Amino acid sequence: MGVRVQTEPFDFGAEANAFAARAAGAGAVVTFTGLVRDVPGGLTLMEIEHYPGMTEKAIGAMRAEAIARWSLTDALVIHRHGRLAPGDTIMMVATAARHRADAFAAAEFLMDYLKSRAPFWKRECTAQGNTWVAARDEDEAALTRWQG
Predict the structure, then answer these.
(1) Comparing C-alpha atoms, which of 104, 56, 102, 98 is closest to residue 77?
(2) What superfamily in CATH does domain 3-146 come from?
(3) What pLDDT, in 10s, does the model give residues 8-50?
(4) What are the backbone angles phi and psi of residue 95, rounded to the nearest 5°?
(5) What's the CA gap between 135 and 115, in Å, rounded?
(6) Alpha carbons 48 and 112: distance in angstroms, whole number
(7) What global pTM score does this model have?
(8) Do residues 87 and 28 make contact, with C-beta atoms less than 8 angstroms apart?
């Protein structure tokens, strides 16, 4: 399973070890995990919504592009949805390639895509109220390096 969208927590270490064990022919494995970040004023929780089926398909297409573009031997994306607390693990990307430059580039590509284009809707809940998270200019700008 190269793409998983789930509510359940996952064990980053176990996932990374299992991914590396499957990385036949790879000379490099890159992993990244994202955590729910606190916000000024204190985040009570983050609610993440998505459309089942659509989200997996969209992420799967970006995973396939990364595999083809950087000749990866494998790639894994795990992203959680539902109600998450500050410090919770929200996502993981893992890439495997013959060479480290390809594994790093593909991981960054997938992370930039997840941040800006993956079909998730995030709402920050604080004592002051709830706010939908808007796209950030710097996240959008990060995507331009992958065009062309």
Answers:
(1) 56
(2) Molybdopterin biosynthesis MoaE subunit (3.90.1170.40)
(3) 999 999 999 999 999 988 999 999 999 999 888 789 999 999 9
(4) -130, 145
(5) 9
(6) 18
(7) 0.93
(8) no
